Amino acid sequence: MFLENQPILQKLYLLAIWISRLATVNLLWLAFTLLGLGIFGIGPSTAAMSAVISRWIDGDSSFSVVRLFMNVYRKHFIKTNLIFLLSAIVGAVLLFNYSFIQANSLPMFYSVITVAMGMIYLLICIIIIPLYINNHVSIMQLFKTSTLFVIGYPVNSLIIVVATGGLVIIQLFMPGLLFFFSGSAITFVVVLRIKKAIDKTRAIQDEMRESVNV
């Protein structure tokens, strides 16, 4: 009752709740990433963390965080590792292309194009697992959707880039935060922007259907 008339305290209380939530899910993310020997655990752990954060953003807190995390981790272990593997292959190809261009002193145009593709690729790597959890499609369709998201929603992409860069810089200066927010803070921003983009797309689609029906 006391907080109802104190908007500032309400915001501080909500902030404290989210800090504790993100710290909790980040510890789970680190633990299950290590459980999967790092390289095999980061994909499913990120998927599980995205699922938990997505539920929280939707206003649902009446679930067991550990149970949901473990269920998503097991259910999507193979598929997320396949996504991770394909992403690594694409990254290796881009790196090889850039090295080939530099070694053969090809025109600057090719380097610029490769660097631009590399930046898009890095952004896709940040959003692809959270996007997969919030938009279940085939793996090939997922890569297409991720690319369309990056290119088709430049504002969201810019916000994700700025937020990710800012969070990385803050955590480099305050390394103690890495243990509690290294993955969860970035995932929160990504999931939030993905949900906004999905909601916007659905609203446009609904308007188009209404205009057709009229």
UniProtKB/TrEMBL annotation:
Q: Does the keyword Cell membrane apply?
A: no
Which keywords annotate this record? Membrane, Transmembrane, Transmembrane helix
Pfam families assigned to the protein according to its UniProt record, in alphabetical order: DUF624 (PF04854)
Q: Which residues span the membrane?
A: 12-32, 77-96, 108-133, 145-170, 176-194
Entry protein name: DUF624 domain-containing protein
Organism encoding this protein: Halalkalibacter hemicellulosilyticusJCM 9152
